[in-house]
Amino acid sequence: MTTPYVLANGDTTNYGFGLFLDEHRGLRRVQHGGRDVGYRAMLLYYPEIDAGAVAMSNNGTFALDLPGKVAETFLGEHMNEEDEIGEEGKDGAFDPEEV
Question: What pTM was estimated for this model as a whole?
Answer without folding.
Answer: 0.73
